[in-house]
Amino acid sequence: MTLFLSQMVTFVSHLRRWVWQQRGVAAVVLGAIALVAALSVPARATVVQVSPLTPQLGDTISVVIHADAAVTMPPSVTFGAATYPAFAIGTDRYRALVPTTPLDRPGRKELRVIGMGAPQTTTLTLRDRSFSTQRITVRGGGSGATEHELSRVNQFKQLVTPQKYWSGPFARPAAGRVTTPFGVRRYYNGVFAADYYHKGVDYGGGTGAAVTAPAAGRVVLVGREADGFVIHGNTVGVDHGQGVSSIFIHLSRIDVQEGAVVAAGQRIGAIGATGSATGPNLHWGLYVNGQSVDPVPWREQGFE
Ligand SMILES: [Zn+2]
């Protein structure tokens, strides 16, 4: 009887593995069908590669467009109500980066490539994902941010430049452990904050510990607490190009100037507790076309 049970367990585990394998095969087959469908479009054929095929909330979706002829204008991609620019990443190849966030509604979504003859539409499923929650008690109101810091930070997040600075996966910008991951949701005084999520990753570490650029880029924002960055504290913003940027806040020291081009791993400042911080920590926010996305896929697989 015991033997039979253990055989059953083995059988079930084989069965589960088989089911997973079939799902993998199905994904590959669907991908192949998508490619063939794109290839069968007559004249000015375009092939569109979307990855990941089943993104989850917070993922960045890469849309690579292969064009068979020289196009006069780069194509763009629409997803939901937004349109995202594609940039050249090689000969007759363009790529658009589509951000998703914890505030998006999961489910079937239409992704459309426009500007390359007839629009091409692909449907993909944005998977739900659970994020951990924090319960915060606050007294009084108002964020207290100055107009100056809000306008400079908002301007920074909207910046989209065609040059691509980064290559390969991003590195961690601090050596300390992650104290708050991306996407954490909050209850304020017991009420769920529907429009809040943690827009970055927090790293612990003592005041003065090095903060390094996770990827190459150009420093486009330096803000100081003394100049009105009362919530962000001392801040550095790095443009990685093609709609991708990083912001580092609460710094104790800033080692770069606006306009400087930084290499991956180059020191840009030091961990601190400036601005609205409960203790020394680095908050790293990664933005794609204006939206805060999960940096983990950028650190693990990276984007070409
Ligand atoms: Zn944070």
Bound molecules: zinc ion
Count of DSSP E strands?
21
Domain tally: 2
Estimated radius of gyration: 22 Å
* Name given to the CATH architecture of the largest domain: Distorted Sandwich
Broad CATH class of the largest domain: Mainly Beta
Number of helices: 3
Report, as a whole number of angstroms, the end-to-end distance: 54 Å
Low-confidence stretches: 1-43
Order of helices and strands: HEEEEEEEEHEEEEEEEEEEEEEH
Mean pLDDT: 86
**Coarse shape:** globular
The residue fraction in helices comes out at 10-25%
The CATH homologous superfamily of the largest domain corresponds to: Glucose Permease (Domain IIA)
**The CATH topology of the largest domain:** Glucose Permease (Domain IIA)
Task: Name the structural class.
Answer: alpha+beta
Task: Indicate the proportion of strand residues.
Answer: 35-45%
Q: What can you tell me about this protein's structure?
A:
This protein is an alpha+beta fold and 304 residues long. Strands 9, 12, 14, 15, 16, 18, 20 and 21 form an 8-stranded antiparallel sheet that branches. The chain starts with a helix and ends with a helix. β15 and β16 form a beta hairpin. It has 3 helices and 21 strands. The N terminus is likely disordered. The structure holds zinc ion (ZN). Zinc ion binds next to loops.
